[in-house]
Amino acid sequence: MTDENELPENSARAKIAALEQQIAAVRKEELKKRELILHNFGLQIEALRTEMEETIGIELNRLRADLNKASADLAFYKEEYFKAVLSRSWKITGPLRSATAVKQKIRNLLNHDKPAE
């Protein structure tokens, strides 16, 4: 009678062992799929990072070029300004510009005191 009881028990154990092996195989396949998905995400992230760095690099180079141009323009106009200030005509017309500024201030003061018509 022991052999009859052990037979179904052994059969059940064998079925359980076979199911556990199937479960392990399915888990292993799922892990491989997930690893592949994660690897693909990693590749996509790296591609996006590279693209972003290239875009930022291009934009940064454009901004540097704009800054260099603005610096060159500033140097040019500063030089032109000092040339004009140091020129003979600027020195000659200096008193006239001063007189015009004083005249304008006096005119503004006089107009400010007038009542509105």
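[next item in queue]
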Amino acid sequence: MALLPTIIDDLTEYLERKQAYLRPDSYKVYRYFGVEFTAFLQQSGLTDLPTKKFKPANCEQYKQYILKHHKDPCTRNNKIGMLKSVLGNYVWCWT
């Protein structure tokens, strides 16, 4: 039986695809999101979670995480938008 890809696996794949066609200046925004989202996953103990098991409650945890770390509403919205984009490619869970 094949193992399900983890959220980290799918995030890595998503970022590799973005890097393939974006200019370096544009890609750095995605790279920074990847670093920050990975830190959230590590802090929350979710690094080994299969993507298909990433649930709306996990999205809410991430939302609370960025609310604590970012004061600017535009930054907050951008982070949420990027997560929606990643999850939209693999599993839709944002509510």
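[queue empty]
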